[in-house]
Every structure is written in C-alpha cells, then in structure tokens.
Design a protein that fits this description.
The chain is an alpha+beta fold. The protein has helices at 13-25, 32-47, 50-67, 81-90, 112-125, 177-193, 204-221, 233-247, 249-259, 295-309, 324-330, 339-349; strands at 73-78, 103-109, 132-138, 151-156, 169-176, 261-264, 273-279, 284-290, 315-320. It has one domain (10-182, 257-335): Beta Polymerase, domain 2, CATH 3.30.460. It contains twelve helices and nine strands. The mean pLDDT is 89.
Length: 350
C-alpha cells in the first residue's frame, strides 16, 4: 500500500490535546452528543498512527525472523477510545499528542531467552535505524503493581520519505507465552466483570488472585515474583489455590469462552484488518474483516462500534494479524479464551 491510502495527520497537536481533555472531562463515549468535534479529532489522530504502526509491525516481524524463533505470534492494534479516555483520566497531566501507545505491535515468543534476544536486537540496531528507540521498560524484572510482565519499547517514527508521520510514537510489546496467557486472562475477566483489572481497578479478590498467579508463572520462568507474595513456593501455591477456590476461577473463566458465540468473518484477508466487537452481556462476538485498501472504512466502523457499545459495557478493537488462528492467539481475551492460562496454572500448582 502507498502512503496515499493511509490517514495523514491534519490537525495540530494543540487541537489533539484539547480534544483528548474534552473527552476525559465529559464522560467519554457515553456522552457522545457533548463531545462532537472532539471525538472526530481523536479518531483522526488515532487513524493517523496506522501508517507508522504498520511500518513498525513489519520491522518487528523481520526482527523475529532474525532471531530464528518459530511459531511466534505477531499482531498489531489501534488503542480503543475508552482506553485512551481512561488513561487520560488516570494521568490528568498527560497530553494526548504525547501518548505513546495509541498504536501498538506485539510479539509473543516461547520464553525469556527469546524475549531478551529480540530486545537486544532492538538495542543493537537502534543506531542503524532511522527511527528512534525512545523508552525501554523492563516489566519482567520489575513487574507492574498488577503483576503484569513484559518488555515495552516505545519507538518514534522518522522518515525523510514520509515526513507527515515524523514524531508519532508506537509501542512494541515483547512477551513470553506464559506472560501473554496471564495478561489476556486479566483482560478477559476485566471485560466480563466490567472492571479494568489491568489498571489495578476492580474487586480486591480478583486483583490479588492475578497477582499471585503472575508470580507463580514468574517463578516458573526464573523471573522475580511480586514483592508482596509469599517467598516460599509452597505458601504461594497454597494461597493461589485458595483464591481459585474462593472465586471459582476455573469454572468462571472456562464458562466465559463456552458461552461466547462468534458471528461474521471466518478468516483474515492478506494484509487486511479485523474488527472485533465483544458484547459480554449477550455472550456475543462479532468478527468483521476488511481488505487492506478498506482501512479508512474499517476505522470509521471501529468508531461506530465503540459508540454503540459504550453504554452496554462492550468492547471493540481493530487489529491486524496474518490469519484468524493467529488472531485468536494474539487476542484470546476477545474470544473469551483462557484455556492456556487455566491449563498452565493448574500444571504449575500440581
């Protein structure tokens, strides 16, 4: 695809920041009539990240190939409007024009050795790249309070050939399969419960359970456990099992996937996009695919789905992957699929 097929930034950063603040202060998508032009500005700013996002996703795939890793999961997504609004509310001093993860690409590999190999390739090749590696955050050795683990790299786009996109930032996430299973299980439960568990918001019992489970996985991979979980492996396992019994974790997580029915597309077109619309209250997932040249239409439909689902606690996301099978592996939370998380946790707890 040529740059002419992609949205180009046509608003000032000042307009973007004012629009973001208006959404954050006026109820977000739940109050669409009051935000008018602001929502259009935010959606345009988000869509303008599609071109650099695609460039960094291609680069990520190339670097995965360089490592010789087989069966890696690579995918990309544009940040959901509710997530943009939620982040602006959590961080009132943040400016939308400087938000680093409006576009995100992700690689999921087998283990920590492969994650570190991939990360080191970014660090070594940074000097030769025309793009800038702005920040590097190691949430594996220093996990977030929620228990989240992974490597986050923020890259700033820079190209003499396409200067309109210069300065836009894209986040690259590197995870192991265990870390990915944990993170997507957190998002699945958060969606069905109506809480942002990944932002440490929601019922204390579930937050504690995922903190414990994350540390069980971390010990298996040889990375640090959270600071406030039992040091003794036996005590950690016992508390985790107790939390699982109290919350009926296995029954509830597997029920989410069993109840969910998907309608719509059955495959991903080459170089195309997929719009996932999840309605937990109706146990429904709608899957709609788009050709690469239909990106503008996909982004318009993305916003319309977000508006429609805002009042019902649903979620929509526009993603890219090379097949529906890899899409399910990259974003299992939208399919209610927590089987890997449950199986691995049971295996490690014996």
């Amino acid at each position: 695809m040529t740059p002419s097929k992609w949205a180009v930034p046509s608003v000032t950063r000042g307009e973007v920041d004012r629009a973001g603040r208006m959404l954050a202060e006026n109820g977000g998508l739940a109050n669409v009539l009051s935000i008018g032009r602001a929502l259009d500005v935010v959606n345009h700013w988000r869509s303008a990240h599609s071109f650099p996002l695609n460039a960094f996703q291609v680069m990520l795939r190339d670097r995965v190939k360089q490592t010789g890793v087989r069966d890696a999961i690579v995918a990309q997504r544009l940040k959901r409007t509710p997530s943009i609004v939620g982040k602006l509310r959590r961080f009132p001093a943040m400016k939308l024009s400087r938000m680093q993860d409006i576009g995100g690409a992700r690689a999921v590999v087998s283990d920590l050795t492969e994650v570190d190999d991939l990360w080191q390739r970014y660090r070594r090749q940074e000097r030769r790249s025309k793009h800038a590696l702005v920040t590097q955050k190691d949430y594996i050795r220093k996990p977030k309070a929620s228990g989240y683990r992974g490597i986050h790299l923020v890259c700033r786009y820079r190209s003499a050939g396409h200067p309109a996109y210069n300065g836009l930032q894209i986040e690259i996430q590197l995870r192991t399969r265990l870390q990915h299973a944990w993170a997507t299980a957190v998002e699945t439960v958060g969606t069905f419960l109506g809480h942002s568990l990944k932002s440490s918001e929601g019922p204390e019992g579930w937050l504690r359970f995922f903190e414990l489970a994350g540390s069980v996985f971390a010990r298996e991979e040889g990375s640090p456990a959270a600071g406030n979980v039992p040091d003794d492996p036996g005590r950690l396992a016992a508390e985790t099992r107790g939390a699982m019994r109290t919350l009926h974790v296995e029954r509830r997580l597997l029920a989410f996937g069993a109840a969910l029915s998907a309608t719509g597309a059955r495959d991903v077109p080459p170089d195309g996009y997929v719009l996932l619309a999840l309605e937990p209250d109706r146990s429904s997932l709608t899957v709609r695919s788009y050709l690469g040249r239909q990106l503008a239409a996909a982004i318009r439909d993305y916003l319309e789905q977000e508006k429609r689902l805002a009042a019902d606690g649903g979620d929509a996301v526009l993603v890219a992957a090379d097949s529906l099978a890899s899409l399910r592996r990259a974003f299992p939370n939208y399919f209610g699929d927590t089987r890997t998380f449950v199986e691995e946790l049971n295996r490690l707890l014996g």
